[in-house]
Amino acid sequence: MVDLDKLGINYEKIIDSHIHLGVLANTYYQNYSDKKVIDIQKRFKVVKSFCSHCIAFSSLDRQMDAVEKASGQFGSHLYWYLIYNPNYPEKSIKIIDENKDKINFAGVKIHPVFHLTSINSKKYFPLWEYASSNNIITLTHSWSPDTPNPKQHLSNPLLLKCVLERYGDIKIILAHSGGKVPFYDKVADFGKNYENLYYDFAGDTLYPPVFRKFIDKVGADKILFGSDMPMIDIRYHILNIFNAGLIKEEREKILYLNAIKLFGNLDKN
Amino acid sequence: MIKFFDVNFWIGSSDYWLSSDLYNDKEKQKDLLKIKEKLKDNDIRKVLVTNKLALNYDWDVGNGRLLNSKLSKIENLYYSFVLNPDIYFKYDINNYIKKAFQNKVRLFRVFPKKQLFYINDFYMEKIFDVLSEKKFPVMLDLKQFDITGAKYFDINVVETVLEKYQDMPVIMEASLKQCMFSRYFFPLLEKFENLYLEISGLLLYDQIELYVEKFGSDRLIFGTNYPNLPIEINTNRIILADISGEDKRNIAFNNLNNIIEGIEIG
Questions:
Q1: CB contact under 8 A, B205 and A148
Q2: What pLDDT score was predicted for residue B53?
Q3: Is B237 touching A (CB cutoff 8 A)?
Q4: What is the pLDDT at residue B178?
Q5: Hey, of A2, A23, A30, which one would you mutate to test binding to chain B, going by the most B CBs within 10 A of its CB?
Q6: Confidence at residue B17, expressed as pLDDT on a 0 to 100 scale
Q7: B236: which chain A residues are within 8 Å (Cβ-Cβ)?
């Protein structure tokens, strides 16, 4: 294994604000194991991984067993987003409420495409109410509506306007920040209006200029490092940020300082 | 040091989905020195260049502009031509291919969804017959067989090409999201020795390592998909891969070089 530092890529640590454990039916994983994912994270100096478990997208009932099992295996390395399924709002809130103080709770994950529910649907309003009352961070899948997959329009982040205007105090991380290069400008312009929006560029769009674009429009304090492992090899995202022409201070904010500031309750690793 | 042979380097006009930043980057590519610098900085010793104009505007105009550009002054720069059935009417296929080879063309690329034709139609069969006879490589993009947009591909069509033209090396790219496509690729790689995968879309963790383990390093071809992806990300991914030095050299350079050297133009 060639170390990244031999390529002149040096950093102290990473907090990965967007990973998953578990698999997805439409993706082939060779010899998948949670350990393999976390080992890779640790190999590249990820000191905390913020995670949702894929099984919860399909089955809320199985979520906490999976979370507890992985928590037992990886301890304080993992922080969790619990899933809110808009088709089962009460059940979702119940699980979150009952478990948030028992685990390393990071916040709530929503996936409008997976749950076939538009991000501005009333079905999400119980979550926004709960998040507002309990100061809970939400990580949402967000994507450009202009893609071959028509379902992605459900996760158009610009649709959050009505939500943010009604619940101005809630903190939302836009996973992928819209996901498509031509859409980034619109998302960044939209974000200028909302202090509590945060951004990651996790996923399969590797585009180093996006960091400068968002720094210029919403500030370096709003950007988090996210890889979307195991869907994407974290090495691509490390290389992505190191090819973005950032100064060290900006890079460190994105790699870990912003996550510490946003989530606040991390132990000192 | 690993040297690279890039099968997937684009120049030309901006694509509709690209941002202004990438457009600017493409504009810069018109500057010969910039291209030379870019290739040298990344140890890309050989490169196959495709003109975006040939994809988005007109295959023949775009291909022709490549030949008439100053790119020919760059040593070890070769061309890939976009090909569609119109060639059947416009040119004598044998002569066209022979002349293309003389003009440093070493690859043909086919985009049936984008340019609206059926890849196994009567005309394409005639064209593939000639390419196959000459062992001339063809590059396909898996997304061109995604009829619905929901990533459910018309694999039978691809199989027909691979089955019928087994002397024709077929390099498959999937331009991102390939991490989800292994179930399509595994059986094809098992069945057809003339199939190669271009690596710029192999984004799943350890995926390059997995393909090497399963099928050997001979089946992977280095490509950057530049400027749609930064060059450094793909070169470094090979440099960082958990595979042997020989495997890295195969993927980075040797496999494509062997395919190109295997062309029998006659």
A1: no
A2: 87
A3: yes
A4: 67
A5: A30
A6: 39
A7: 7, 235, 239
Residues A28, B186: C-beta atoms closer than 8 Å? yes
Cβ <8 Å between A4 and B186: no
Question: Residue A142: which pLDDT band, with cuts at 50, 70 and 90?
Answer: very high
Least confident of A132-141, A174-183, B58-67, B227-236: B227-236
Distance from CA of A218 to the nearest CA of B (A): 18
B207 touches A at CB < 8 Å: yes
CATH fold of A4-263, please? TIM Barrel (3.20.20)
Which pTM was predicted?
Answer: 0.89
pLDDT at A1: 40
**Per residue in B31-49, pLDDT tens?**
667 788 888 989 999 999 9
Q: Which two tokens stand for residue B195?
A: 């199939």
Q: A148 pLDDT band (50/70/90 cuts)?
A: confident
User: What integer pLDDT is reported at residue B186 of this predicted model?
Assistant: 94
Q: Is the pLDDT of residue B233 over 70?
A: yes
Look at residue B35 in the predicted model and tell me its pLDDT.
Answer: 80
Three-state DSSP state, A232:
coil
Query: Residue A89 pLDDT > 70, yes or no?
Result: yes
Nearest to B117 by CA among B144, B150, B89, B152: B144
**Which long-range contacts does B91-99 make (Cβ < 8 Å, 24+ apart)?**
B93/B126, B93/B127, B93/B130, B94/B130, B97/B130, B97/B131, B97/B134, B97/B136, B97/B265, B98/B265, B98/B266
Of B15 and A262, the structure prediction assigns the larger pLDDT to: A262
B17 and A205 within 8 Å at the Cβ level: the answer is no
Helix (H) and strand (E) counts in chain B:
13, 8
Cβ atoms within 10 Å, residue A13: 13
Judged by DSSP in three states, B65 sits in helix
- Which helix H or strand E contains B48, and what residues bound it? strand B44-51
A8 at the B interface (CB within 8 A)? no
CB atoms within 10 A of CB B93: 17
Say if the Cβ atoms of A240 and B233 lie within 8 Å: yes
Contacts of B17 in chain A (CB under 8 A): 146, 180-182
Distance CA B13, CA B30 (A): 10
Instruction: Spell out the domain ranges in chain A.
Output: 4-263
Three-state SS for A144? coil
Q: Could you give the CA distance from residue B203 to residue A133 in angstroms, rounded to a whole number?
A: 39
Whole-number pLDDT of residue B208:
92
Indicate which of B18, B19, B205, B235 best probes the interface with A, i.e. most A CBs within 10 Å of its own CB: B205
Tokens at B128, concatenated = 């593939």
With CB atoms and an 8 Å threshold, state whether B240 touches A7: yes
Structure tokens at A118: 């538009």
| pLDDT at res. B13 | 57
Nearest CB to A229; choose among B177, B205, B236 = B205
B21 near A CB under 8 A: yes
